[in-house]
Design brief:
The structure holds two protein chains of two kinds. Chain A is 69% helix and 0% strand. Chain A has helices at 22-27, 31-50, 60-80, 88-104, 117-139, 157-201, 207-210, 212-249. Chain B is elongated, with a radius of gyration of 16 Å. The chains are: A mainly alpha, B mainly alpha. The interface between A and B is medium-sized, with 31 and 33 residues.
């Protein structure tokens, strides 16, 4: 555990371990992949079971499914407009996957797959490829006008064009770094304060009383982390919508 | 990192979240600029000139990203 040898070991929680011993090892299937599969399964179950009854007065599960659907639907239509409806399945999948990844990571013994930059960058790269393909297919060659605003003096082109290209390319990077950094920071803080509880608890007679302090902090942190988990999934989805808006309307 | 999002239209507007977003935008633009310059240099064998040039482009793009964070250029259609 974390407190062995009286050191704070906050980063070992992000280590990848093969799932099911030798079987997972031979195909490179880690606990991270297992959690991704679990998230996909849970989302499918939620939507299938939630909407199975199709009641006019929804039950709890159906109300949850419907509010998730309407939340993302409002997001997509509000940001992209009516043309954005065809991107709804994509944004809904993305939002639910990130949300479940963030939330599942808060359970004991669970792994947070959104705390790996490879995963968040993979998701952001999909978004980046999609917005570029959408913009190219809708606007064709006019898409490249995106990198040089109309009305700017032509002698500024050698400066504006590279800057705009770098700015455009920085979108997936900032999208992935934001999610990854938030998740890592939250989990490291939780682990550090949890280690304080164990370390302070072993300080003789006063130990258990002093250890109450980091315990209180951790209780507050878990609540905060639930908020961050939702908020980061929301930010990921809304930025995807904003980029889709740029791709559809081009500017 | 900040209070609950308002409705379905806007990004959450808290001072912490906004500050964090601005930092991420600058860092990611710099990372892209440096990476582009470094790879172009390795490809063309012009180390370190394109690296330095794209470092500047990355910084400018970072400032531009932060500027767009506060003044989104959409909304006109």
């Amino acid at each position: 555990m974390a407190a062995e040898g009286k050191t704070i070991d906050a980063l070992s929680q992000f280590e990848l371990k093969p799932f099911l011993g030798a079987i997972g090892d031979s195909v490179g299937f880690t606990q991270s992949s297992a959690h991704m599969l679990l998230a996909a399964g849970l989302i499918t179950l939620l939507v299938m079971y939630g909407m199975a009854s199709r009641a006019i007065v929804p039950g709890r599960l159906q109300a949850l499914t419907e509010s998730a659907y309407e939340f993302v639907h409002g997001l997509v239509v509000g940001q992209v407009g009516d043309e954005g409806k065809r991107f709804f399945p994509f944004v809904f999948t993305l939002f639910m996957f990130v949300l479940f990844g963030n939330m599942m990571g808060l359970f004991p013994y669970a792994f947070t797959f959104t705390s790996h930059i490879a995963v968040t960058f993979g998701l952001a790269a999909i978004v980046f490829v999609l917005i570029t393909v959408v913009a190219l297919s809708i606007h064709g060659r006019k898409f490249f006008g995106y990198f040089f605003p109309e009305g700017a003096p032509i002698w500024l082109a050698p400066i504006i064009i590279p800057v705009e290209i770098v700015s455009y390319l920085s979108r997936p990077v900032s999208l992935s770094i934001r999610l990854f950094a938030n998740m890592v920071a939250g989990h490291v803080m939780l682990k550090v304060f949890a280690t304080f509880i164990v370390l302070l608890g072993g300080l003789g007679a006063v130990g258990p009383f002093v250890a109450l302090l980091p315990l209180t902090v951790n209780v507050a942190l878990v609540g905060f982390e639930v908020l961050v988990a939702f908020l980061q999934a929301y930010v990921f989805a809304i930025l995807t919508c904003i980029y889709l808006h740029d791709a559809v309307h081009l500017h | 990192m900040d209070p609950s999002p308002g409705g379905s239209g806007q990004l959450p507007q808290g001072s912490w979240g906004l500050g964090f977003r601005a930092g991420v935008e600058v860092v990611s633009a710099l990372v892209v600029g440096i990476a582009l310059g470094w790879f172009l240099d390795r490809w063309l064998g012009t180390w370190p000139w394109l690296f330095l040039l794209f470092f500047v482009f990355g910084s400018v793009a970072g400032v531009l990203n932060v500027y767009r964070l506060f003044n989104p250029r959409r909304r006109q259609g």
